[in-house]
Amino acid sequence: MTVPADAPILTAAAMREAEAACAAAGVSLAELMERAGAAVADIVWRMAAGAPILILCGPGNNGGDGYVAARLLRVRGAEVRVAALGEPKTDLAKAARAAWTGEVEAFDERTAPAPIVVDALFGAGLSRRLSDDLAGLLARFAGRRVVAVDLPSGIESDGGEAWMPPLPAHVTVALGALKPAHLLLPTAPACGRTLLASIGIDAARTMRTLPPPPLPTGDPAAHKYSRGMVLVVAGPMAGAAELAAGAALRAGAGYVVLDGAGRAPLSAVICDDGDALAERAADPRLGAIVVGPGFPAGEGLTRSLDVALGSGKPLVLDAAAIAAGLTALASGERRAILTPHEGEFARSFPATGGSKIDRTLAAARQSRAVVVHKGADTVIAAPDGRVVAAWPGCPWLASAGTGDVLAGACGAMLARGGDAFEAAVAAVGWHIDRAARIGPGLVADDLIGK
Ligand SMILES: NC(=O)C1=CN([C@@H]2O[C@H](COP(=O)(O)OP(=O)(O)OC[C@H]3O[C@@H](n4cnc5c(N)ncnc54)[C@H](OP(=O)(O)O)[C@@H]3O)[C@@H](O)[C@H]2O)[C@@H](O)CC1
Ligand SMILES: [K+]
């Protein structure tokens, strides 16, 4: 499962606006459909490598893309059949159907499969769950190599509803931009490998997929404090804070202090016994404070959090510190990153609704902080509306302690200075990249090893 890096994401409503802007700029919707069909035909041609192709066409413009692809594949000499769910209903799809000079079979239980199946039944216009009859028809094609046009049929574009398809795709050709459903659970795995055919749509850059990890560039004039100084406040379960402190160093901080309980996870981490927290927090060289890993709610957390909040320093709040710090954060301006997993998110932001992207954006606006909503489909949102969706992450990160490592990495990136959202994006990218290099068998400690 892969998605293109740093690619635009549009909701269905934003897609309609982008389409309208294209039309206003002189690119007709018919031209966009021709480009979409050509992009699909190109990918299917290469995948089929001479094998017979069956294209399933629906009643809307998704089906229209299918008819265009069928025509262009036949021109190239491919062996193509088309099976349709009735006659096309839109003018564009009718025109595409008319330009296809081959036979159109009815799509029903008698439709014979082919090694390559192109799913052009429903895309962004899906308005309800597939009927059981239709789901049953599609299920007959499970195990074939399926190319989905724009979205696997049955998936709702904005990812708010889990209308799961019975027919997962090997490859999904996203048209114009990626859609939230390509990047959020539970729908994203059904898209297989998602490719983007930009077809000339000018998509806004506000929402995008995770950029590739930047090439490491060392500042030849750097010293340990200019690289970023991070203070990690340890609670009773010191192992979590130790992981965060080690991660801060590995993610590029020049100087890391572990305050409270705990031992240095790496020799270079400076340990304090917790008596001088206020003094440490007031250090003018300090670039970020991390509070929360291994620190359950209670008086100890409240005291430490008060010191961290009172220092005015950029903050990373994780675990119980998120809910405990919300009110103070929302009442002021500061660079802050919150790193909740789903349970912590639900406790801290119970009133948010919609897709994971909608909910994370609402949480960022409410808290006035950057929110890294962790999970296999991590979403990062800023109060100003920027979003990065980090699907597919790395499966080896699904183990204890990796969230503490991410909090420490956020601290390192934040301590460098600059924009908190970009710091969070860099930290998530670092975390996934490091995990992918380690691979199966990963434990959180490996992420802070050599
Ligand atoms: N954006 C772009 O720039 C471009 C977009 N393009 C393409 O257009 C696609 C969007 O096209 P679209 O809006 O016509 O919707 P589409 O997905 O074909 O489905 C609508 C039809 O399905 C029906 N229907 C819905 N749900 C159903 C259900 N559960 N079960 C049964 N029927 C159901 C619905 O019927 P109704 O709900 O009205 O009863 C209607 O007839 C987009 O994904 C991309 O492929 C490209 O061509 C060019 C550039
Ligand atoms: K489709």
Automatic annotation (TrEMBL):
GTP-binding in keyword set: no
Cofactors: K(+)
Catalytic activity, reaction form: (6S)-NADPHX + ADP = AMP + phosphate + NADPH + H(+); (6R)-NADHX = (6S)-NADHX; (6S)-NADHX + ADP = AMP + phosphate + NADH + H(+); (6R)-NADPHX = (6S)-NADPHX
UniProt keyword annotations, A-Z: ATP-binding, Isomerase, Lyase, Metal-binding, Multifunctional enzyme, NAD, NADP, Nucleotide-binding, Potassium
Binding site for (6S)-NADPHX: 61-65, 123-129, 150
Free-text cofactor note: Binds 1 potassium ion per subunit.
PROSITE patterns, per the entry: YJEF_C_3, YJEF_N
Residues spanning the signal sequence: none
Oxidoreductase among keywords: no
Domain YjeF N-terminal: 15-207
The name this protein goes by in its record: NAD(P)H-hydrate epimerase
Native source organism of the sequence: Sphingopyxis jiangsuensis
Lineage: Bacteria, Pseudomonadati, Pseudomonadota, Alphaproteobacteria, Sphingomonadales
Gene (UniProt): nnrE
